[in-house]
Design a protein that fits this description.
The chain contains 25 helices and 18 strands. The radius of gyration is 33 Å and the shape is elongated. The chain has 742 residues and is of the alpha/beta class.
């Protein structure tokens, strides 16, 4: 951190530094360490892979690179754990800037404003006001209880039987009021947390699936584990915010109520209470704050990475089994576990140290007030009940002043969760404003205004390249203007590598174009550009309207649900209300079912060669059978389900990316013959020579010496003569690579 070691400073400088850190002012160490958190997003390169770095959040690809290094090349778990353990010292030191509790609370408050000023604000504020009122009422009851307890102890010491039973009756009266009040208070707390969490989760889900943000986040690698942030961090953030808010309010009210009580008993006791609390707060924040916050943040990330690896292994179980890769995946899981353990062992050790200090600190409060007030009691200046009341009031005021110590675990979690959610919301907001013609809704609208967020006081900058493709959707009904590309060049979103340049293409009614080229040249990228999920590059694209085009990827997506849901996907669904019930959400999902009858669904399956599919699952409900369809259906059957979706909707234009790679030639021919009857034009990406017979034109990739390439459009007959010399087509052909860049 600083140029002068801490141990060479005087005691006064040490205390001043700790107080400055507590209230968010930078010391020499804090300034250096906090600069990372305040840095704007920037591109960094690690191990040859570029990723977007958001402050201390390196992004999924950076984390994946670090994790893969620990588990590849036969590296042992012990080495991975040792490497993690060694790096944690740097994590703890670099987290010093995050141990500024006032700054953490300010950021959490800014994030909470989204909910309390949004479209749910009336009910949200009403519940919040009710919760705070009950907090004040329960605090007042505790003051009353202290006086009842004082009278009870005084009556006991004086052997005043009548006074003792009178205090007992008062005590029972307090219990009769307090029991239902505290129960209702807890209920309102839970209700506030639940509704806040539901609202915030719905907001994140809408932003995540709006404008293809989920795809862009994965493509850019600019955010690690968004699923954990949406599910776990949202819950933890809301619970921590409520806990900290109530703690502050309750402590402030407690101090106001018991200040007078404590000062009336002994002014010296009140002064000592302040000094004792300041001492405890300085020690806790100075020696435990930075380390525990940094470790909590790292624990969240590494646990999420481990869970992601296990989920990924489950999704690719068949491939792993065929490759006999179970031992390798087990080694990866153990390495991830060792990474988590390295953090948790150190975190447990520091919690032990903190608990050791707080236990000694808290136990001392039971005797210190008595030591201070005892001389006055022995002199006969105060009664015995005053001694017990002084102890109660001292512990109450001291607990209020020690809010950071008593809520240290909560504040540590709140700092990490605020940071993760803040960055996710800001990045999603930036992607929404880019537009990009993606799926889902439009821009981010919260409470009637644009969602504006910043990270550590600075707005999130776009991580996209300055050059963007201008994409608009076609509004003309002219059959000769189904799609148009003009001088389009495409670059990869992260590495900014030029794939190809200068493509001009017009698609009209009756056209069918086969896109061919070597693996990795950017064939699939052409479809991504037309779909609007890639916009890195230049040029103009006039794409068909979203509801008049259908894209068939090589691996069809099979959503959770019934066979009917597989055929209706993607159903057109409007945004559900923030207070929608589970039944209303389900109703929104199946709303598209009214557009098609069962006869329509059976007919589409017949054309796709899957007419027997409902009868195969007759016992499970036929069209309403719910299965894990990715496991139940073969790859070829899944591709034919995708064709059935197309036959059901009759789009003007279809885009196929190796959509028949798992089919035999007979079924492939059957799908393309039906395809011509169900849409006006189509574009296919493929490697098989048998595809040439079903297309009128071929768009052929031509490599360039500078690393990019260009395209040449030919009639299918011309391409066949050039490629095969008029000697007929090759037969067969394998499954396409389906590589990342296509």
């Amino acid at each position: 951190g600083g140029s002068t070691p801490a141990r060479t400073r005087g005691v006064g400088a040490e205390v001043a530094s700790a107080v400055a850190a507590l209230f968010g002012f930078r010391t020499d160490r804090g300034a250096a360490s906090s600069s990372t958190a305040l840095d704007p997003p920037k591109r960094r390169r690690r191990d040859g892979a570029t990723y977007v770095a958001m402050g201390t959040d390196d992004g999924a690809k950076g984390a994946a690179a670090g994790g893969s290094k620990a588990s590849t090349g036969g590296t042992s778990d012990a080495k991975a754990a040792a490497s993690d353990d060694a790096s944690l010292e740097r994590v703890e030191d670099s987290a010093g800037g995050k141990a500024r509790f006032v700054h953490t609370l300010w950021r959490a408050t800014s994030l909470a404003k989204i909910y309390y000023s949004g479209d749910h604000k009336v009910r949200a504020r009403t519940l919040l006001a009710g919760m705070l009122f009950m907090c004040a009422t329960t605090t007042a009851l505790m003051v009353v209880f202290s006086y009842v307890q004082r009278d009870m102890m005084t009556a006991l010491s004086n052997k005043d039987k009548e006074g003792f039973y009178e205090a007992i009756y008062k005590y029972l009266g307090v219990i009769a009021i307090a029991a239902p009040l505290f129960a209702m208070y807890q209920y309102v707390q839970d209700l506030v947390a639940l509704e806040w969490r539901l609202w915030l989760t719905r907001l994140l889900v809408r932003e995540y699936f709006g404008n293809d943000a989920y795809f862009k986040l994965k493509a850019e690698g600019s955010m690690d584990n968004p699923d954990q942030r949406i599910c776990d961090d949202t819950r933890n953030f809301v619970n921590a915010c409520n806990a900290v808010l109530l703690a502050f309010v309750q402590k402030i009210l407690s101090m106001g109520a018991f200040f007078g009580v404590l000062y009336g008993i002994s002014p010296n006791l009140l002064y000592f209470c302040f000094a004792y609390s300041l001492f405890g707060t300085i020690v806790t924040t100075k020696f435990f704050g930075a380390r525990l916050m940094g470790l909590h943040y790292q624990a969240l990330r590494r646990e999420a990475t481990m869970r992601f690896g296990l989920v990924r292994a489950r999704e690719h179980a068949e491939s792993i089994a065929l490759y006999r890769g179970a031992k390798r995946e087990a080694a990866n899981a153990r390495a991830a576990l060792a990474s988590v353990a390295a953090v948790m062992y150190r975190r447990v050790a520091w919690i032990r140290n903190l608990t050791l200090f707080t236990n000694a600190y808290d136990f001392a409060t039971f005797c210190l007030p008595s030591l201070i007030i005892a001389p006055r009691y022995f002199a006969g200046e105060v009664e015995f009940g005053v001694v017990t009341q002084a102890g109660f009031a001292f512990r109450t005021v001291q607990s209020a002043l020690n809010i950071i110590i008593n809520n240290f675990e909560t504040l540590s979690g709140l700092a990490a969760e605020t940071d993760r959610l803040e960055k996710l919301l800001a990045l999603l907001s930036g992607l929404s404003k880019q537009g990009g013609g993606g799926g889902g809704g439009g821009g981010s609208v919260v409470g009637g205004g644009e969602l504006e967020l910043s990270v550590a006081g600075q707005k999130i900058a776009s991580s996209s390249s300055p050059g963007l493709i201008n994409r608009v959707e076609r509004v003309s009904d002219d059959p000769n203007e189904l799609m148009s590309l003009k001088d389009v060049s495409v670059r990869t979103p992260i590495t900014d590598r030029l794939l190809w340049r200068g493509l001009t293409l017009d698609l009209k009614d009756g056209d069918s174009v086969l896109v061919v080229g070597p693996s990795g040249c950017g064939k699939s990228s052409l479809l991504r550009v037309v779909a609007g999920v890639w916009d890195s590059g230049s040029g103009d694209v006039v794409a068909p309207p979203r509801d008049d085009a259908l894209f068939l990827p090589q691996t069809p997506y099979m959503p959770l649900g019934s066979l009917r849901a597989q055929l209706l996907f993607p159903a057109e669904i409007g945004d559900a209300d923030a207070t929608a019930t589970a039944a209303e959400e389900v109703e929104a999902i199946i709303s598209d079912a009214s557009l098609f009858t069962d006869d329509d669904l059976h007919a589409a399956l017949d054309v796709a060669g899957l007419g027997d599919l409902p009868s195969r699952f007759a016992n499970e409900g036929g069209l309403d059978a719910v299965e894990e369809w990715t496991d139940v259906l073969s790859a070829g059957e899944q591709q034919r389900v995708a064709f059935a979706r197309l036959f059901l909707r009759h789009p003007s234009v279809a885009f196929l990316d190796e959509a028949t790679s798992a089919l035999d030639e007979r079924n492939e021919s059957r799908m393309y013959a039906s395809l011509k009857k169900h849409c006006s034009a189509y574009v296919s990406v493929g490697h098989r020579s048998t595809l040439l017979a079903f297309h009128s034109h071929v768009l052929r990739f031509v490599a360039a010496t500078d690393g990019g390439g260009s395209w040449v459009l030919e009639r299918a007959e011309e391409y066949e003569k050039t490629r095969f010399g008029g000697g007929g087509r090759e037969k067969g052909g394998g499954k396409g690579d389906g590589d990342g860049n296509g």
